[in-house]
């Protein structure tokens, strides 16, 4: 028997260091996360605080960033780590993505030296948690419509507004909040603000009743006359392109990550099909089953090759936003299709938390939607192909 990776000779494309990182994260995921994941998912919880220092010790928080206690790993190595985490659950990878690719990246890219020194080492170590508040109740795909405002009052800033669907929001020590800042110019522009937990007027309420990403903490943030000092603004943030650049980083992790969930589903389906007997022989020995498995293996392997190609481009500093969109759309769309197809192979057992497939499929509904929905990425690719902007 060969794995999909072996079928596509993928390990041969990785350096020794990349294989080591992948194997280290896989071991941690197998020993520390996998035994508990079904229980966390069922309870709708995630021990982010408890796990963050362990993830920090492995160098997974802000892994691709340089300095300030961050690992400074390659983009490809970061992608491979995301894949191993998401093979356990998209919720785990989401926690790591939001901490490193969104909150820490925003501070690293746009923060002052003091802000970087204050927050990044603790965040890299997993002692401090961050979240990234861009989406609002009425504005997700179109964040430029956001209503959250920051106005000056003397030297201070005063923020009002609300943010929704914010991963890690209820446990974060610091929220990176995006708001239109009125700075006395012609038009307010989007800027990032660092809002420490406990600031008067700032509350984070956990969102319940999710049927997807249950092993992930998601919150609604309220900002009601939140007064911040002048130096709370991220000085390098200038316009909507600033949060969008952070999203591009997180999307890149998803290109690899979603395929981890698909890989786990396929492994579970193959394992099940080899032992489950129907009409007196193993399910795996039926042509219909093999056709499903072969087709899924092709999509998974092609997705892995595309992810690696994009990783190499990113490491050379050559990747474009459209290329990241291409990978995000392909990985999430194929991963959810694979998860659903694997579910059919497991029959009724496929709907049980005793197996990972429907948990992954449900999680992938969120992964398909956040960091730019599948439709938004189709529009990005469509615009690149035609030069015609079909967003409006
Ligand atoms: C579990 C979870 C965690 C999240 N974590 C975060 C977080 O940490 N921080 C954060 O800021 N946000 C977060 N989000 C929010 C996420 O980024 C948004 O849900 C996403 O951007 C989509 O926005 P929306 O839900 O408002 O959908 P909408 O923008 O209302 O879209 C609804 C539908 O319309 C489609 N659509 C939109 N525009 C067009 C168009 N021009 N043409 C055709 N179709 C269109 C969309 O593709 C979608 O199918 C999270 C979401 C989830 C589910």
Automatic annotation (TrEMBL):
Database matches in InterPro entries: Acyl-CoA_Oxase/DH_mid-dom, Acyl-CoA_Oxase/DH_mid-dom_sf, AcylCo_DH-like_C, AcylCo_DH/oxidase_C, AcylCoA_DH/ox_N, AcylCoA_DH/ox_N_sf, AcylCoA_DH/oxidase_NM_dom_sf, Glutaryl-CoA_DH_mitochondrial
The Acyl-CoA oxidase/dehydrogenase middle domain, residue ranges: 131-226
Residues covered by the Acyl-CoA dehydrogenase/oxidase N-terminal domain: 15-127
Cofactors required: FAD
Alphabetic keyword roster: FAD, Flavoprotein, Oxidoreductase, Transit peptide
Superkingdom, taxonomy of origin: Bacteria
Keyword GTP-binding among record annotations: no
Residues annotated as signal peptide: none
All residue ranges annotated as the Acyl-CoA dehydrogenase/oxidase C-terminal domain in the record: 238-385
Protein family membership: Belongs to the acyl-CoA dehydrogenase family.
Entry protein name: Acyl-CoA dehydrogenase family protein
Organism from which the protein derives: Nocardia thailandica
